[in-house]
Amino acid sequence: MEHETGSYISFVLGDEYFAINVTQVLNILQLVQITKVPTAPDYMKGVINLRGTVLPIIDIRMKFGMPPIEYKRDTVILVLNVEIDGETVNAGILVDAVKEVFEIVSDEILPPPGIGSKYKSKFIDGIYKMNDDRFVMLLDIDKVFSTDELIMMKDSTETSESQQAEVVE
Amino acid sequence: MDNFQKKFLDEASDLVSQLEQALLTLEQDMGNPELIDSIFRIMHSLKGGGGMFGFDNISNYTHRLENMYDLVRQKKLKVTREMLDITFESADHITSMLNDDGSKTEAIKQNEEILNKRIEAILDGDSMSVVVEGPAEDDNQGGGVTSFYVKVKPYEHIQRNGTNPLLLIDELVGLGKAKVNIFYSNIPDFEALVYDDTYIWWEVILSTEQDEDAIRDVFIFVEDDCEIVVKKLAEGDIFTFEGIEPLLQCSHDFPFDLEKITKLAQAINALEKAKNTEAKKAAEENKGDEHIKKFAKESSISGIRVASEKIDSLMNLVSELITTQAGLNLYADREKNAELTRIAESLENISRQLRDTAFSITLIPIDYLVTRFRRLVRDLSREVGKEIEFEAKGAEVELDKSLIEGISEPLMHILRNSVDHGIESVAERKAAGKPPAGKITLQAYYSGSQVVIAVTDDGQGMNPDKIKRKAIEKGLIPSDAQLSDKEAVDLIFMPGFSTSEKVTNISGRGVGMDVVKRKVSDIRGTVSVASEPGEGTTITISLPLTLSIIDGMLVRIADVDYIIPLSVIDTIFAVDHERIASSFQNVINIEGVQYPFYYLRDEFSIPGEPPAREEIIMVKYEDRKIGVVVDNITGEYQAVLKPLGKLYRNQEIFSGASILGDGTVALVLDTHKVISKFTRYNDI
Question: Which end of chain B is less crowded, N or C, counting CB atoms within 10 A of the terminal residue's CB?
């Protein structure tokens, strides 16, 4: 019965694969000069000009507790349509590379991992096993943007420390 | 709520503000039929729309008002103050019904009952104030002219008692237009002639506005001395009747052919009558048409409603176009291709016009606020028992819609102050030799790239000494402070200052002019006061023309561009980095003056080597000058302000961003916030 399909776009952060529903992706941009906004948290990289509007850029790797992004040939900006506190906002995330767009039938999505997993399950809609046996985490990007906390919870003491560092501007 | 209902609500609140405007004008010109008509029409639209979209409460209520104004229209009721008061309150009542989310239904109902009773009282009392109907319409068509045949045949002896019949004829002819036929035929042969006998007689065709009695009055003293015949010939001026002329030829001794004249005149009269009835009918139809035309005209002038989001997105597209245009120009310059340059130039021309038109769409005339202000002054002045005239000049001056929103509250507060503190009571004014009615004038005008709005009252003005005393009492200034009168008056903008001795429910709400100043500076405006004791006070607000374009100074720190609004910049000095690095407590001495300053590289935690020579920009902060240090200055720049967005909502030191010609983003600094954010010591 559950044969709803959805298109997802997959991308790489560090050595892990993530995916976002394409309905939330507006655009993929080549890296451009980012204007840093002083006094903002470090993971907020700054703003760019997206066809006349000012688009905030987030280093999603830092948000996930990874080291800051290094700008390489494949680095791109995914322009997303996210909902923050009931308001639709456009924002860009920096990713190491974009992989592919693929279709998923909803009953093939595995439930998010429970205890012991690397990322907090509330930010993960589910996990999908690709043809090459890779696992892709399907992100609930609205939740990622709606929180100031860090996403990773591998080590609780480490997380709370870096979380504090995050909050301090 | 469905779309149509929303649309109705929009329209209804428009109608209510139209209603208020019409009422305010009617108050000045009681009984102006056009205004009464338009009020009636507004009621009618509200009733119709309310019924159609399920707002039965509004429909029912306006129905009663409509009835009242219908009676006024039919001249069965006269406009009274009470009626205007009721209608004003009804406007409020309707607004609260429109905005009711169900929570206030009870209160609204109670209010409505009271209003209904008052309306009933007016309707019941209508016999008291019945308007005397004008005189019954004259059925005398053709401008009330009637044509008569008059025969004057004096008896022979008429001259014996001193009457000169010629004078009578003269008097008769003087009543209107006349043709006179004279008859000599009775004159005897010379031998038989008696010198004081009268032999000649006359026939007169007369068209006059007078009636038969007036004609007979001419002969009132000679009734027994002559034969007088007066016959009505026709309605209207017989001399204008077609075909009658030959019949009215005068030749002595040939009498008018009365029979023919009468017949023709009657025929023409009958024809006229038929025509008139038709014309009357047509006129009535036309009247209806005119109403429709007038209404159609009004609705076509008022333009179309556009959601503000659409305008915002139009503006975004336009500024995107401008930025792209700048890119195209750069490219065309490099290519040195004549054809390309020509196209780029003509495109630039078009984009500039498009930009100007698009910006003008976002502008709203100040008039939009004036009705509300007029109402406010009216209500407040009644509340405090003062007589105040409110005049608005330059209400056609246009402001950006976001500025209109931002300026409304400060202006209301200023007006409240003027009503409450500025204008004296009637008795005080009389004692001071002023006219009993105070006057508050709101004047708006353009001044360069600024819009100035000045509120002037002819009240008691401000007493600098009193203000100084108060400020010392409140500990706002030291007791030995030496202040000029101007400086003293400016104290009213200090937080915590309020001279009102008793707290009234109008202006003594605990917020003072400091709030006004803050709100105005929130929209990048300035406010100043000028006051002459005994003469009055003027409060002047200057605003940028639009919020979305600012004149700024483009500066650079490391590799990022920043824009500082020109309006806050006082002076700029170039200084060696050495002097800044070696300064104590962030205070620098320039030309003998000590200035506190902020080193933005440090405050923004920007890494890297600073240049050897830096620029220190003195910005106005409250009434002092404070420096901010940047690497270098690029030049003046007209920036289209863009919001930084929700994600950067905590970075309030930036009021937005702007896209530069090369497509990069510059951040617009709010120096006010920069200074208050980085202030570590209270003494700065």
Answer: N
